[in-house]
């Protein structure tokens, strides 16, 4: 009995304890649920807030992107806006990366092809704003390179801004080796092309800082250069490559001999003190070898070869030949610098002038194709300031 009472009492106590415990648990559960609910409400609203802010950011991004695209489209449109009403050109981000400082002061005398004149030197000076000197690392390990350049002296360059129907662009050009016969422009290397871009190959003599010394060049002084790429013989030269017959029928453009007048050497010595500040040549003797190499090719234009005296009157009128779009590969028929000496009494004896490495060289060529180099002088308008890339720049590299 006593035991059962005790047990009842215990049970009651236990019951109370349990009830209290449950109550506490359920209260605390209710509280936590309440707290949780409040917290989750806060979180939800925070999430909504964030979602809203994200959405607005995305919207902003999208509209910014659309704005950017619109701006880019506007810029592209602006860039491709025709320069004249008749013209619609596509533009690409291309402008010269450097400039050629060559021994060929004018187009006249500049070889028609690369490597014809091994002594023909030029410094290629890169614009360091556009290409840091590190761009040239490794280039000196090649013997030759390709050079892409602009035919900046083409007298018809302006016309290329016009609509093709008005540019007077000629599909066919006269070819020196065909004695005036014509070929489609893409079958020639004429400078008069729809895009006035030239391609040549040159020997790499040395690379120094932002400059290269090249030889065998056919590039006129001041030529803007677009690109340089290494010449890789195993893929750039094709043994079985074929060319048209007219290219191989040669000897039209070589001369019989080149000799110098008795006074020439002393005349050259006199000029040299001024010339050497700019020159890429070590000595008067080396420069004389250059003259010989240059004049061993008939550098006269086609009409000069055919009608030397006509050519002079044409020059005086400064009028281009009718419909002559091109004659030589690196020369403009319309703008050569040959002149006849004013006091030449013998009308058969035409004296030609060639500006080479800043020196004015006079020569004649007889009926049999013998060239006689008569005299040399400093040109009237000679910039005697020394050149930053003359022979002294390269002296150590050349030896
Ligand atoms: C070099 O390139 C920059 C940028 O294109 C140009 O502003 C500057 O005139 C160029 N310098 C020379 C010497 O061509
Ligand atoms: C030269 O071109 C003009 C138009 O540009 C043409 O009328 C004329 O017939 C051409 N002359 C020759 C000789 O081809
Ligand atoms: C060579 O040119 C110089 C300078 O122009 C001149 O003084 C000299 O008389 C010329 N010599 C000959 C032989 O024509
Ligand atoms: C070259 O010399 C000749 C005379 O010897 C002269 O007529 C001609 O103008 C000179 N050319 C230059 C660019 O000085
Ligand atoms: C260049 O020539 C002018 C006059 O002919 C002279 O005063 C000047 O000192 C010369 N400059 C150099 C670097 O020889």
3D architecture notes:
By secondary structure, this protein is of the alpha+beta class. It folds into 2 domains: about 1-80; about 100-399, YaeB-like (Elongation Factor Tu (Ef-tu), domain 3, Beta Barrel), CATH 2.40.30. The protein is built from 9 helices and 12 strands. The chain has helices spanning about 1-80, 165, 235, 245-250, 265-275, 285-295, 300-305, 310-315, 390-399, and strands at about 100, 120-125, 145-150, 170-175, 180-185, 195-210, 210-215, 225-230, 255-260, 350-355, 360-365, 370-375. The strands form 3 sheets. The protein has a 6-stranded antiparallel β-barrel with strand order 1-2-7-6-3-8. The chain has a 4-stranded mixed β-sheet with strand order 9-12-11-10. A two-stranded antiparallel ribbon has the order 4-5. The longest helix is centred in the N-terminal third of the chain and has 78 residues, at about 1-80. Bound molecules: 2-acetamido-2-deoxy-beta-D-glucopyranose (5 copies). One 2-acetamido-2-deoxy-beta-D-glucopyranose binds near residues 384 and 385.
CATH class division of the largest domain: Mainly Beta
Structural class by sheet pairing and helices:
alpha+beta
- The overall number of domains is 2
- Secondary-structure element string: HEEEHEEEEEHHEHHHHEEEH
Number of helices: 9
| Helix content, binned percent | 25-40%
Sequence stretches where pLDDT stays below 50 over 5 or more residues = 310-347
CATH architecture of the largest domain: Beta Barrel
Could you say which small molecules are bound to this protein? 2-acetamido-2-deoxy-beta-D-glucopyranose
Number of strands: 12
Task: Report how far the terminal alpha carbons are from each other.
Answer: 129 Å
Which strand order do you get reading across the main beta sheet?
A: 1-2-7-6-3-8
Rg calc: 40 Å
Mean pLDDT: 79
Could you say what the CATH topology of the largest domain is called?
Elongation Factor Tu (Ef-tu), domain 3
């Amino acid at each position: 009995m006593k035991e059962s009472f005790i047990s009842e009492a215990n049970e009651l106590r236990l019951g109370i304890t349990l009830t209290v415990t449950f109550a506490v648990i359920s209260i605390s559960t209710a509280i936590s649920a309440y707290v949780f609910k409040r917290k989750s409400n806060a979180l939800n609203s925070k999430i909504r807030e964030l979602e809203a802010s994200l959405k607005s950011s995305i919207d902003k991004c999208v509209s910014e992107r659309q704005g950017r695209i619109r701006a880019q489209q506007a810029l592209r449109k602006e860039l491709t806006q025709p320069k004249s009403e008749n013209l619609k050109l596509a533009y690409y981000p291309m402008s010269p990366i450097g400039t050629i400082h060559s021994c060929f002061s004018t187009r006249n005398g500049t070889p028609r092809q690369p490597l014809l004149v091994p002594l023909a030197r030029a410094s290629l000076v890169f614009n360091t704003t556009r290409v840091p000197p590190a761009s040239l690392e490794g280039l000196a390990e090649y013997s030759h390179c390709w050079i892409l350049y602009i035919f900046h002296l083409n007298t018809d360059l302006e016309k290329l801004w016009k609509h093709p129907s008005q540019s007077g662009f000629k599909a066919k050009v006269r070819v020196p080796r065909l004695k005036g016969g014509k070929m489609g422009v893409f079958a020639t290397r004429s400078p008069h092309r729809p895009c006035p871009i030239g391609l040549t190959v040159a020997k790499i003599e040395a690379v120094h800082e932002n400059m290269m010394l090249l030889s065998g060049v056919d590039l006129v002084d001041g030529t803007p250069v677009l690109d340089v790429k290494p010449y890789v013989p195993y893929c750039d030269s094709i043994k079985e490559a074929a060319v048209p017959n007219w290219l191989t029928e040669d000897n039209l453009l070589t001369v019989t001999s080149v000799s110098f007048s008795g006074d020439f050497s002393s005349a050259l010595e006199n000029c040299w003190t001024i010339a050497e500040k700019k020159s890429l040549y070590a000595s008067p003797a080396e420069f004389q070898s250059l003259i010989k190499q240059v004049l061993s090719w008939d550098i006269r234009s086609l009409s000069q070869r055919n009608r030397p005296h006509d050519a002079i009157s044409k020059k005086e009128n400064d009028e281009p030949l009718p419909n002559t779009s091109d004659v030589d590969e690196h020369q403009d028929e319309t703008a050569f610098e040959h002149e006849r000496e004013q006091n030449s009494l013998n009308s058969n004896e035409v004296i030609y002038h060639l500006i080479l490495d800043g020196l004015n060289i006079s020569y004649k060529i007889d009926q049999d194709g013998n060239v006689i180099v008569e005299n040399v002088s400093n040109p009237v308008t000679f910039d005697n300031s020394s050149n930053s890339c003359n022979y002294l720049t390269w002296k150590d590299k050349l030896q």
